[in-house]
Amino acid sequence: MKKTGVTILSLMLVVVLMLTACGKSNEGNKNTGNTATNSGTEQEATKEPAAEQITVTLAGWGASPEEQDLLNQTLKEFETKYPNIKVNYEVIADQYMDVIKTRLIGGEGPDVFYLDAFEAPALIERNVLEPLDGYVTPEFDVADFEQPMVDAFKQDGVSYGFPKDFSTLAMFYNKKDFAEAGITTPPTTWDELKEAAVKLTKKEGDKTVRFGFGVAPELARQMFMVQAFGGKVADENGNAAFAAPDALKGLQLVTDMHNVDKTSGEPKEVGAGWGGEMFGQGKASIVFEGNWAIPFLESNYKELDYGTAEIPTVNGKKGTMAFTVAYVMNKESKQKEAAWKLISFLTGKEGMKTWTSKGFALPTRKSVSLELGYDKDELRSAIVAGASYATPWQAGSTLPTIMSNFNNQFVDTFMGNSKLEDAMNKAETVANKEIAAAK
């Protein structure tokens, strides 16, 4: 009996060992996917599904090679953060807005595209832009933006874009000319500017070879002067309003320096193409220019010793112009969630820091500007300082009509060929007839 019991126990042990070995073999087959059982199906059920690959189209205009490199770097960082989203970036080199408008009308617009503040009201009115407030999360931190830049892309409190960069106008002044004229500090009021311009203007016989103040006699640069005494470029109905007495007061200060004091001039009077070139050539001691002038001067006039300051106050008030561009979303985009991820990255703190890191463009986020030190930058701090009180280059969808009529007549007045009041009344009348005809 004992022998039989041992035999049975031995047989049971063999069976257990065989079953154990079989179990281990099947487990191995599950791991390698070679089993003929349902193990492969079980594996597929528990595997993380691959993220769907999405392509987002982005359109913008051309930039310098340095800026293009920065944008490419920023887009690469975005694609690294969101590996399932590919950005197809297209440069529209010519007739940018005409191309964008045509594509939007034809249902072939990009998912995301650049939009200048000047053009924003017209596109918002056409109802082709996606409202963005519903996509915004607290982490996006809208309050971090400079307020005038954000407001430039709002209508009735709704946000249709977030600004990628900006520049205000600041006062560029020639330090050597100042020293020779005995001027120790840059002017801070318009009266001080007038006095400085007299000292800085240089003549050879009857010819002025250097103006104290270089002026761009166009609405894009003079809108803040229209507003200095409470004037408006356009009224609430979109009609031109720049011929009102309060608007003329600020403009008169500009024309008087040219026609009465003989201390200011525009670039073409000295053979220059624009204010930065006029300043670089030493044909104006002071100009009002933006951030774009800094790399231009550094590249073309390396020996020029100059500084920047905030634009002098007018009527006791600070004022300047702001030029800004936003990323906006096509309302007909088929990839809205991915498009928002792109916009929020490019205008978020991370993407904006990369894009503005070299100073070619300035950040619209206050925190990024502080982190990069632009608020203390020797040349850019004055440009940054103007952001909180600047007037964005924008005045409703009728601004293109208003601008063309204003510019035609204001240049004529600036050159002394007509009285300011007569010229502005004529420009306003024609502009409003054209606006009425277009309705």
Structure description:
The chain has 439 residues and is of the alpha/beta class. The chain has 2 domains: 54-168 and 322-392, D-Maltodextrin-Binding Protein, domain 2 (3-Layer(aba) Sandwich), CATH 3.40.190; 170-320 and 397-438, D-Maltodextrin-Binding Protein, domain 2. The protein is 45% helix and 16% strand. The chain has helices at 2-32, 39-46, 65-81, 96-105, 120-125, 147-151, 175-180, 190-200, 219-227, 245-259, 275-280, 293-300, 336-346, 349-355, 366-372, 381-385, 399-414, 420-438; strands at 54-60, 85-91, 112-116, 154-155, 158-159, 162-168, 170-174, 202-204, 207-214, 264-265, 284-289, 306-309, 321-329, 391-392. Strands 1, 2, 3, 6, 13 and 14 form a 6-stranded mixed beta sheet that branches. Strands 7, 8, 9, 10, 11 and 12 form a 6-stranded mixed beta sheet that branches. The N and C termini lie far apart (114 Å).
The backbone outline, from C-alpha atoms, is: globular
- State the secondary-structure class: alpha/beta
Unreliable stretches (pLDDT < 50, length at least 5) are 1-48
How many β-strand stretches? 14
Mean pLDDT: 90
What does the main sheet amount to? Answer: 6 strands, mixed
The first-level CATH class of the largest domain is given as Alpha Beta
Q: For the record, what is the CATH homologous superfamily label of the largest domain?
A: Periplasmic binding protein-like II
CATH architecture of the largest domain: 3-Layer(aba) Sandwich
Share in β-strands: 15-25%
**CA-based gyration radius:** 32 Å
